[in-house]
Amino acid sequence: MRDQVKTAYGGAVPDTPDPIAEAHRQWSVRWPEHADHMAAVTSVMRAQQLLLSRIEAVLKPHGLTFAAYEALRLLAFTRTGTLPMGKMGTRLMVHPASVTNVIGRLERRGLVGRAPSPDDRRVVLATITPAGRDLAEEATAALNEAGFGIAALPAERAAEITAALRAVRVSVGELAEG
Amino acid sequence: MRDQVKTAYGGAVPDTPDPIAEAHRQWSVRWPEHADHMAAVTSVMRAQQLLLSRIEAVLKPHGLTFAAYEALRLLAFTRTGTLPMGKMGTRLMVHPASVTNVIGRLERRGLVGRAPSPDDRRVVLATITPAGRDLAEEATAALNEAGFGIAALPAERAAEITAALRAVRVSVGELAEG
DNA sequence: ATCCAATATTTGGAAGTTAAAATAGTTTCC
DNA sequence: GGAAACTATTTTAACTTCCAAATATTGGAT
Asked: Is the Cβ–Cβ distance between B153 and A172 less than 8 Å?
């Protein structure tokens, strides 16, 4: 079992002990006052990449991408299983066109239905079907079992991440201070 | 100045005080032992989305996407300004096909050159041009000025994020414990 | 010398993203 | 009652990413 440098996208092995620490060092030489920000941003990007690839690997056997899973879960979590397209975009923080796209694919698979709202005919209502509910439940169980790709991480460490990143969301104005 | 719910993709305003806290509550009801992991992962995804959109806004006037910037910066940071395509993929942690793609675009704009390696004819060497170097320098200055999208965040908070996320990278096996 | 397994890159295709324009329906306000 | 302004969704087009398959090239084993 050699320590080869393997495939390198999803689950990867860099050729430097810690590429981010290395970049931080490089930055410190020329722009010391910005090195911490650079490293934080790079860390977020890299963590997202790692987590996304693990999560999509868990979801793949169920035929879902992360985007599709999020949409399905959102619907499954509402009492009626129905939500206007626009509302979904807001909740998921994605572009309306992305909602159209994802829901379109889910619809073709019979996991959600689509119908114009009786109240406002501009509005299109997406509704999760029983099959969609089953799949959402199934996929959620799989993700939980897999600890969302970070099962090995103690819960306290996970909570620290949430807390540390709340500062970003506040700083960017998504959240009120709190 | 009303508190309207605005555009909602790039820089967004959710319709709940803190959507992640809300999701954590929901999760706690049914899967309490996984709620922290779910929240951490969701936080990373959301932070990445927010930061990426701010960073791309800074880079846009310079005609670069974040991916293009990273590739250019990587080349600019090597002494010779030259790297094999494969090596770039490893360093940037992206799929080889993505490297082909990005370098192709940079090449068309005269920011990098491409040439087969004299040593190994399977290998293609990408080299940054003087114009590429200038642009990289310029874009880096812009990013620094913008504090990488989190100028408002104190450096200590930024460092906390890097530290907290190092745990993820370790847990996933990208990094040795340290 | 040759064959075969590994390596490096590119191509083609599915998915996702965004911005901008098109379409349709609703509301507001004279 | 009708024009103008606004809102919701979809379409289109341009990018980006990844995967899987194809194409070259190399290097080691026979």
From this structure: no
